[in-house]
Amino acid sequence: MNQILNASYRYTDDPRRGYSGTSPQARNGFAEIAIDGQPPYTVKVDAEGRWSWTPPADWTPGEHIVSVRMIDAAGNIGDPAQFIQVVDYTAPDAPRLLNMYDDQGDITGSFDAGRMTDDRRPTLTGVAEKGTVVYLKEGDTVIGSAQADAITGIWTLEPDADLSDGTHQLTLVAVETFNGKLREGEPSAPFELLIGRDGSAATVISHAVDDAGPVTGSLLSGALTDDATPQLHGSAPAGSTVFVQYRNASGEWVDGGAAQIDGTRWSWTPPAELEAGSWEFRAGQEGSWSDSFTLDIAFAGSDALHATLTHATDDFGPVTGTLLSGALTDDTTPTLSGRGEANSTVVVRYGAFGEFTHSAVVTVGADSNWSFTPPALEYGVWSFAAQAQGDSQWSDIFELVLMPGGQ
């Protein structure tokens, strides 16, 4: 009599995962399903040899030995088919960071999160669920990855590209493939990498915080905000005094006083509301200032807060690059990009031959940039426009001509 099931391992996250099969030799007989050596469940085989079984209760997580055998109408018992049923309902746990190592410059060795290093690609080591892929992320951007060892769970990685000077807020997340599907776990607690010169007293402006108006959140350099008193944050060596200066696009540096220090972290808020326009900030001491940090400030209801659609990007075919409105392209999934108020949402509408038939909602980043890639479009003339959600004004129409071998 044929064996119905012969796989050595099966995987499921279905709490009521059942089995079925067809055994012509067992027509009008029975199928017996035994779990972990317990008394078997018995189900009827129909006249076509078909049978199916669903467990009466949820599977418990873990590995279960399953044995299936067929009994024909005359009582003849077939050889059992055995396999391991792996039941797992949960995504992998957050990876643990065990060590960071600097192998560049005069000062090398292990260092703690928040301590300055001149190694722009430090080596990170930790442990995660065995066989999972560990991703190093800055915000939502993956900047490095490695696979945890299948036996020990140990992983080692370096960032894929050099990290810029300043503070980097990073997290780790593990991803596994289970039952043919990718499952991403919860991220680790954030940790900081402070990139600078060994032994330097560099002061860094890492970000600002907008806590005014309907849209709030963290701001990166270059962001557009309606907060006239954005709070700046950064890092400096412990025990130092941090001063902040600021100026508008055409002005002289204005002393903003000393920042509040908490260990190696500092914060500062302008002493008075800033006027609308472009502002530049720096922190540190005379002769040792940080890199400039810029913000564009616009008041609620002003034209500056309207969403813009500035360009598209073609990354398909032999000719790639930036596209302006009216361009020809063979990329049927061009990426549209623009700007808006940091952390806001933007509606993108689009359609062929002058009719807007589709729309999507995208989130503006902390740097005020947004991007959107549509599903594959047919060849033809396509129009796009963007609007800040809740606003009444659309951006200028942006057109692309999609055709084979465009550009």
From TrEMBL:
Segments forming domain Bacterial Ig-like: 33-88, 103-175, 320-389
UniProt xrefs under InterPro entries: Big_13, Ig-like_fold
Organism phylogeny: Bacteria, Pseudomonadati, Pseudomonadota, Gammaproteobacteria, Enterobacterales
Protein name stated in the entry: Bacterial Ig-like domain-containing protein
Superkingdom to which the source organism belongs: Bacteria
